Amino acid sequence: MGPIASAVSINTHYEDKLMSVLDLYRSKRTDAEQAIRLVNNGDSIIVPTGVGEPPTLLGALSEHRRDFHGVKVLQILALRKFGYFDPDTVQHVQHSALFIGPASRCGAQAGWSDFIPNYFAEIPSMIGRGQIGADVVFSMASPMDAHGYFSISLGTDYTMAAIAKARAVVLEVNPNVPFTNGNCHVHVSQVAALVESDAPLFEVGMPCIGPVQQAIGCYVADLIEDGSTLQIGYGGIPDAVVSQLSKKKNLGIHTEMLGDGILSLVECGAVDGSKKTLMPGKIVATFMLGSNRLYRFVDRNPMVELHPVDFTNDPYIAGQNNKLAAINATLEVDLIGQCGSESLGHLPYSGTGGQSDFVRAANRSEGGKAFIVLPSTAKNDTISRIVPTLARGTHVSTSKNDVNYVITEFGVAQLRGKSFKQRALEMIAISHPDFREQLAHAARKMGLV
To answer: Which of 39, 56, 87, 430 has minimal CB crowding within 10 Å?
Structure first.
């Protein structure tokens, strides 16, 4: 067979394959009201992080929630308050948070919504072992490519593990969802039903940065060296850090969340990934939360890869990046360095998320630095966030053994390798001046100094 005949044969095979996946796509296309009937009573539905939640499917589930009994919807960081966030119908469909977000906070604190403690990196293995149920997956997805693959780029996280385990996978296909590289692809043959929508994606703007956040950002930025690899969480302080890094060189990204702050560092040339020791040149993340500008940037961008969270957040894997700088916020820190990042006393507020994962990763990293950041006070300077002991019932997110740098607008406390006495003195030094005398008195009373 000559080269021309061979090319014709290959093209014919390709066209046949394309028709095959298109036929499969059409056979599985349906509407949301029909798709949700794949859910059985007692099922656990896995939904991706944040923007990956499919609004058409979850809207239909909400509207028909009274048709079901004992169904749970499991998700990290719910952004939209769908109809099933309803204390009167939890016997039908109940939200079960893996990390508490704006939509789920009220229910979690009142007790009618469930909360499952976890390390973000370990959720896929918990699903694989049956510790977290995964009967059905509802997820946003990009349009299918010519080979029959969708990208679940907005929330790869634990969703890939759930897809491997689930009885039924239902995708909400939206042309606004980017197609990205990485281990984030689902073949049409794995899907039970497809629902189409073209609604604009949920967007999250940059948080407001005030003088306190700016001061903390300056302290952190001064400690980040050229050639560092960054993990940056969401919030005013992490974004204040980003705003100080535009003059840095050869930064890399290995993070859980990809946001507009990171995009700004790519655009100004600070991030090129050239010095990364794991996957050099690649921006690595497990979910996205930002603007349409971000979603357009990642679409088929060979620089960006989305991977499951047991890859991105595994301390052993992430720690293979030299000079890993992990930047995470907290609510309260005590004098020996225990961080309460996810509750207000006993009341749940958020979750452990990836904070502990990346603190440990940075501690493993050669030249790594883990930063815990917080304003020194709350409620208009009436409450100190640096406290003698965490409030009763507080959930400890990062332990005293793991904490490295703690930074407020008043300075830097480096705690790793320090004694209780040394830690207490460093923590008092970065507290608000109005509370230092009280903290010193409490430290003496506790025998810390």
So the answer is: 87
